[in-house]
Input
Amino acid sequence: MFRPPPRASGYLHTGYGEDLALLQTRTERTSLAVFVVLLGTFPFVASPFALDLACQVFLASIGALSLMLLTGYAGQISLGHAGLIAAGAFTTGILAREISAPFWLTLPASALTGIVLGFIFGLPSLRLRGLYLAVSTLALHFIVIYLGGEYETKRGFSTGILVEPPSFAGVRLTDGRAWYFVLLAAAAASLLICINLLRSRSGRAWRALHVRETVAEALGINIARYKLLAFVISSSMTSVAGCLFAYYRGFVSIEAFDLFLSIQYVAMIIVGGMGSLLGALLGAAFVTVFPYLIEALLRLLPNIQKLAGDIFAVNYAAFGVVMILFLIFEPLGLVGIWRRVQSYFLLWPFKYKPLAGARK
Amino acid sequence: MQLAVNIVVLGSIYALIACGYVLIYRVSRVLNLAHGELMMLGAYLLLATASLFNGHPVMALAAAILLSLLAGGLVYIFLMRKMTGEMVLAAILTTVALGILIRGLVVLIWSAQQQYPAQALGVANPSLVLFGDARISLWSAVLVATTILVYGALFGFLRFGRWGMRMRAAGQNPLLAAQRGINLHGVYALAWCLSTLTGALAGILIAIDSGLTTSMPVIGLKAFPAALVGGLDSLAGALAGALIVAGAEVLLIYYVDPLLSDVVPFLVLIAMLIVRPWGLFGTREELDRV
Amino acid sequence: MTTPLLQVDKIEVVYKRVITAVQGVTLSVAERQIVAVLGTNGAGKTTTLRAISGFLGIDDARVTEGAITFKGTRIDNGQPHDIAGRGIVLVPEREKIFPNLTVAENLAAPVPRGTGSNERRRLDERAYHFFPRLAELRARTAGLLSGGERQMLAIGSALMCRPHLLLVDELSLGLAPVVIQDLTRRLTTIRHELGIAILLVEQSAAAALEIADYAYVMENGRIVLDGDRERLKSHQDVQEFYLGQTGGERRSYRDVKQYRRSRRWYG
Output
């Protein structure tokens, strides 16, 4: 898998608190502080378009983090991610429409839907692995989508469900900047949850069963329990992302949750770099920004009139190409590139040399 | 009676598509999720050759089929060959990405409108009357006949042909096959060519029968459960699975709810995965090929 | 002195660019010779075989120094089917047959270069001639064969490729002593009738030394001893550590293998 980055040189901790701290070097602390300041001032200097883009990236990160947890760390392949987001979005939409449920009711309800669905999606993993598990998640995705479509047609929402913006203590959430901070907080919370989960017993159990299931079981790890746990936690996070998605867009329609969305999420964790939370974030950013990048690139070309109408097709084709390129040439993803750059600067002026014993 | 005819027609469609999945999986343990898109490509290639060979439908058909065969080989040589030896999951995702790429390219080249290859070819598609009051269109009948022919040819080839035996050997033990002088790249390329050929046949016949849209890959994806139900490495299984899935779909549409059509194959798939994951006739392998 | 059929010159094999599995190994196989490579697990024997047959790429390994020459041409780091075409055929340790094909199909699957159907029929007959038991099992699925029959089929299918040099990896693994004896005797017959050379990698030194003309002993990736059959059979260390005929006087750590060995050979 990947090498963890070099951190502090020398082990100078004098207490457990220091050992468990998330940020261990002064450089890490300062760079995080700088990053937080940048994030905080961004909404006040950015255009509404950039603000919307950032919000989309935050939303996508939640889903990407949960999928990375499930596939990158616990090793359970899931191609049904879009179905889970749809479930969260539809729970929100249905509750908001049918019984005018407020935000603080729909959010937990979405999480609950995620938990139940996660359990169902996770049941095949007790018996299947690899390709067959992926196929079962695919099938479940289609079933969820079908149920959503059924609801839409049967209840007459064939063009989709409109969702009112949520309100906190009487204040309606419609401002772009406000949404930015809400989604940033949600993404940061997901990241912290994932980091802590991975440092806990569950995280260690997931890593163990990812690498060698039989050995993990021999060591006393309850495989079934942890597999289901991975699915349940990941799915509830994803459903919450779906709920936020419904409120942010203000509109829920089953067509937005097709197989391509699932593939996009899988692409996020692959392009980002499997087995790394940073990879999930980088991948989410990349895949979200990608269509806009392509559009911008197209505008630079002279004869865009012909292609302007087929922007979706161009996106598809470009997405396919980029995914293929990453799979063939850079299987470690963006994180791999990042780590290489990092170690180059950290080891400079030395270059990477093979270990002793490789040469006489 | 009409129901039975529908089941046979839909079953033939699924069977013709499913054997493409089985061929590649059996030989290289890779699941080609771009099969639906490659199928669609074959039909669009027919549009191109139809306008090229205006007035000669037979030549147009032959050219389209040949081009598709070539396309399959090219996909292997330039793309999948780089993924042999990598994790199977990576190879599957590569096929997914390829499918997405093909979808985009097809719309860019031919536009997203519905096309009518039958008109382009200049062939008619009359409705034939079978026993009772069951009707079947001409080209649906052609499709059923084609499926039977293709399966017969494939069975014979795999069991008795020299390259067929090499394909079976490479599927079981690629390392040993390479050591014994079997050209693995050649075998894999052949599997891809044959798979794309059968897929293109299906795509072309479906397009002639009922028009061509860019959502044809959905049928390809629905045929995948047929392959899995029968066993991903068994041709006989693909045939059986296709009939089962088609039967379930037609009956459930008729008696329960027409909207079910897209989801029935996956319900059957889930049921089979619960009961017998390796399918009806598949070899019981370790289920963790990642 | 005639040039040997196979000459391995001070090769070094490195896995994943960091792990040196084999260092400074030199061995040679002359025409019609049976050479054995002995050693315990992890000595580097299979790595050497893989280096010769070209199958290092699978485990991300390379021959980084030295040369392997076969009939005058260098073949190190070559392609497996290329090397097989030149006449070096490997009988692998595991996965040596096609389990779902019948015995006859297993023998028909290999593709020797440039053979017509007459020639293939002759090769077929030849395989059944050396292993009559296989002729009775022609229609049996190969996965259902017993261990000894499976090994016979593996050697038979290797013979179908018309080797000049046969590499056999761990012939005796998992087989009863009677079966091993039978197989080694057949290998001698094959060498005698076909005039091919055989390179045998074996953990069971007794079985190997019965038929080998010359043998090498490997430890930790190096060759520590070589000689013809008589010399090795009478060598004290080989007797004690590989043939199990202890002198019985080991009492202190000074008598432990490494210590004694290094004192005797390097000290």
Observations:
- The first strand of chain C starts at residue 6 and ends at 15.
